[in-house]
Amino acid sequence: MPRESGNVKLKAARQHAGYASQQALADALARAGVELGEADAEVSIRQVRRWESATPPWPHAVHQRLLEHTLGMSVEQLGFTPPWGGQSERQAAPVRSGAAAHPIVLPLPPPAPTTTTQPAALAVDYAAVTRAHRRLYWRVQPPLIRSAAAEHARFGAQLLSEVGGMPRRALAAALAESLLLVGRIEFFDLRQPVEADAKFVEALQAAGAADDQLLGAAILGHSAFVPGWAGDRDGAAERLRAARAYARRADSVPASFTTWLYAVEAECETRCGKHREALRVIGQAEDTLAGGDETPLPEWFDWFSPVRLASFKGNTQLKAGHLPQARQTLLQVLENLPEEHRKQRTVVLGDLAAVAAAEGDPEAACARAVEALDQLSITWYATGMDRIREVRRALEKWGDRECVTQLDDRLYEWRTTLIALQR
Question: pLDDT band for position 104 (50/70/90)?
C-alpha cells in the first residue's frame, strides 16, 4: 500500500478535532474568521491541501490565528516550519481560544536529516522499554507508570530527529504506543480527560510518522471515549468514523480489533443514554467475533478480549434496566476474568453492586462495593472508583442501614479519601 506522506501533524490534529475532510476544516476556518473579525480571510480547500502537503508553506499571519483558534495548537505544532528556521517564540505558550482547544503538546521534531547520528539498533532498544511499560501497566500504581511512560515518550520524541529510514518508522511506532499508554492512564486510571485528549493527538502524530494505520485507528478509537463519556454523541461518532477509515487502510484488520471498535461505540452510546442502540452494536460485535479470524493481533493490542466484550455488554444491560441479564453476564465475566486483571475486576464488581442496588438489595450491593474497594486498595483505578460512587448515590434511600454506614466507613477512610482527593 502507498505510504502516507505530507503534513501528518496537521492532518492528525484536523481529524482529532472532528474535521473529517479538508473541506470541513476550510469551512471551520471560515467560521473562525467571522468569530475573530477576519471575515475577509478566505481559506479554500486548495489552501488546506497545500498545508497538508509534504512541503507546507508558512501560513500568513491571519491564517495562523485561524488555525490556532480552530485546532487549539500552535502552527509549529501543526507541522509548519518558520521561514527563518527554528522555533518561533510563540511555541512556548499554549493556545487557549477556540472550542477545539487542547493543552499545549510536545511537538515532534522535523524529519530526520540525511545523515543520522544514532545506530539503527536504537529503535529496537527503545521499543523494548515500551513493551516493558505495557506489561507494568497492569501491576504498577498508575501515577508511577504514567510518570515513567511520559518521560520515555519525551525521550523518544527527541530521538526521532537522530534516526532515519525504517528505524525512524519503528521508533515512531514505539513512541506512538508510549503516548497512547500515557493517554489511557490519564483517562481511565486518573480521570484527566483534557490531558488524555492532548496525548492522543501526540500519539496520532507519531503513528503518522510511523505510517502505522492500525495503530492510528487504535489511538482514534481511544480518543472517542473522551467526547463519548462527556455525552457528546456526535463527537464520539466522528472519531470512530475516523478510526474505521484508518483501519480500512491497514494491510489487515483482525476481527478482535473490529470487535473492539464496536465495543467502544457501544460504550459511548451507553454513556449518551442510547441503550437500545448500544445493545444493537454489542450484537454486531458478538457476530464479528463469532465469525472467527486467524489474522494475528498486534503485540500492543492487549486491552481487549471476549471477556472484556462481555463486561461492556453487562454494563450496557445494567444501564438499559435489563437487570437479570446484566447479573448473569457480569457473574460470568467475574468467573472468567484473569486474576491479574484487577482493574477490570473493580469495574465488574461495581456493576454487580449497581445491579443489586437497582433490585432493592442494599446488603448485597454494599458487599459487592466492599469487594471492589478491596481491589482498589491493591491497584488504584479511577474508573472503578467512579462505579462505586454511583452505587453509593443509588443507596442513599437506605443511608441509615448498617451496611451502608459501614460502606461509608470504608469509602471515606483516610487512605481512600486522600487518594480520591489527590486524583
Answer: very low
